[in-house]
Specification:
mainly alpha
Length: about 90
């Protein structure tokens, strides 16, 4: 009978270990999923920030080109007026 109780205790210990292992795997899996979700959110934020910065740079360059064109037009207009007066 003592041997039977010992075996039963070993079986219970084995079941408890298996249950604990399953719980640990589930917890670890959940932690990984949360980390993946956070990494995805961080990546999306980074991409959005990059796109926003790129758009700002494009707008800045457009504004520069427009200013240069305006200067060229004013310079040509001034030249034409000088030629007209001459």
């Amino acid at each position: 009978m003592l041997a039977q109780n010992a075996v039963k205790s070993l079986e219970e210990i084995e079941r408890e270990r298996e249950q604990k292992a399953k719980e640990l795997v589930a917890e670890f899996t959940q932690m990984l999923a949360q980390q993946q979700e956070q990494a995805a959110v961080d990546y999306e934020r980074l991409v959005a920030k990059f796109e926003q910065e790129h758009e700002k740079e494009v707008e800045r360059q457009k504004a520069e080109l427009e200013q240069e064109k305006q200067k060229e037009v004013q310079t040509k207009l001034a030249q034409l007026e000088q030629q007209k007066e001459a």
